[in-house]
Specification:
Layout: E1 2-5, H1 9-14, E2 28-35, E3 41-49, E4 55-58, H2 64-80, E5 86-89, E6 93-98, H3 102-107, E7 122-127, E8 130-136, E9 145-150, H4 155-163, H5 173-183
Antiparallel strand pairs: 1-4, 1-5, 2-3, 3-4, 6-9, 7-8, 8-9
Length: about 210
């Protein structure tokens, strides 16, 4: 997870990804693709225009190091020409709560009205007593769900509080994989990689 600050943060991000970041409203995010010089997909990212003067970027865990190297290299190039952009790498953990009971379960631990949080939008809030969380209504299962960015030191605490709810269970990547296949969602490293372009992957809808 990376935060991008500075008045040129949108120009920085749009120089790397295929999406229209400038059109994102405060709190709104989008799935977009980080591409290489041949148009291949280096990673698929979620980029959110927060209401707190920065972009919030979520990389795939397996691609985080190479993504960060690309981000840092591009930031240095822009900084050398006088652009105002800088990066902050977060050590937050990411928990996904997915499924038809998600809204009922999570609402019990939120002061915010989850019904007002639409798909691909996010808020900074306290979740089950854990402050400093970012809740984004998205997921990789085809179900209604959220991804919760939580300070790493409190990730286990939050996970345990969620698991105390009878309708919440742990699920592994194989379970997630079966659901994303049913939903027709691409998996990086399996369906898409640096040799596959957005057109070849059927992801032209991500271009902005």
């Amino acid at each position: 997870q990376t935060r991008v600050y500075g008045r040129d943060r949108v120009r920085f991000m749009e120089s790397l990804v295929v999406g229209d970041i400038a059109e994102l409203k405060p709190g709104q995010g989008t799935l977009t693709l980080l591409t290489n010089e041949k148009g291949g997909i280096t990673d698929d990212l979620i980029v959110t225009n927060t209401s707190e003067d920065h972009l919030y970027v979520v990389s795939n865990a397996g691609c985080a190091d190479k993504d960060l190297a690309i981000f840092r290299g591009r930031a240095e190039e822009l900084q050398a020409t006088g652009s105002d952009v800088h990066l902050e790498v977060s050590d937050n953990a990411l928990l996904a709560l997915q499924g038809p009971s998600m809204a009922r379960v999570l609402q019990a631990g939120l002061s915010d009205d989850l019904a007002k949080l639409s798909f691909m939008n996010s808020i900074s809030t306290t979740v089950f007593g854990v402050p400093g969380c970012r809740v984004t209504r998205c997921g990789y299962t085809g179900e209604d769900g959220v991804e919760i960015s939580v300070p790493a030191g409190q990730a286990v605490e939050l996970a345990e509080r969620l698991l105390d709810v009878p309708d919440v269970w742990l699920a592994g990547l194989a379970a997630r994989d079966s659901l994303r296949l049913e939903a027709g969602l691409c998996l990086y490293g399996n369906d898409i990689d640096e040799t596959v372009t957005p057109a070849e992957a059927g992801l032209m809808w991500t271009l902005g």
